[in-house]
Amino acid sequence: MIAIPEIKSFEITKDHDFVLLGCDGIFDKMNNTDAIMSVWKSVEDNSYDNIHSYSVTAIDYVIKNALYRKTLDNVTSVIIVFSGFKHKVLGSKKIK
């Protein structure tokens, strides 16, 4: 935890794909764009038939990217995916 966390408020619309929450250990070494690109890189690199596997792998990429950049702090991270992410990732496949 940090004394003054970064807090953003916004309305979630159908255009949103996901929200990524992370401890300062993630964002000490990565900016928002780096974290987002890690999520999309995980999608590009893998092929699953369910959204849960993509979500787990996305978080794994974000954490490993921060660790690769030698973060020395907590790397806890959570992703919340919305239907936009599911549709982009799985397309017309049946979502499990």
How would you describe the overall organization of this protein?
This protein has helices at about 25, 30-45, 50-70, 85-90; strands at about 20, 75-80. The chain is mainly alpha-helical and about 100 residues long. It has one domain. The protein is globular. The model has no long low-confidence stretch (mean pLDDT about 90).
Biggest sheet strand order reads 1-2
Task: Please write the string of helix (H) and strand (E) elements.
Answer: EHHHEH
Give the integer mean of the pLDDT values: 89
Helix content: 40-55%
Q: Given the structure, what is the number of helices?
A: 4
| Count of all domains | 1
* Euclidean distance between termini CA atoms: 35 Å
Compose a concise summary of this entry.
The chain has 96 residues and is mainly alpha-helical.
Q: What is the fold's blueprint, element by element?
A:
Blueprint: E1 18-22, H1 24-27, H2 32-45, H3 51-68, E2 77-81, H4 83-90
Antiparallel strand pairs: 1-2
What tags apply to this protein structure?
single chain; 96 residues; mainly alpha; two-stranded antiparallel sheet; globular
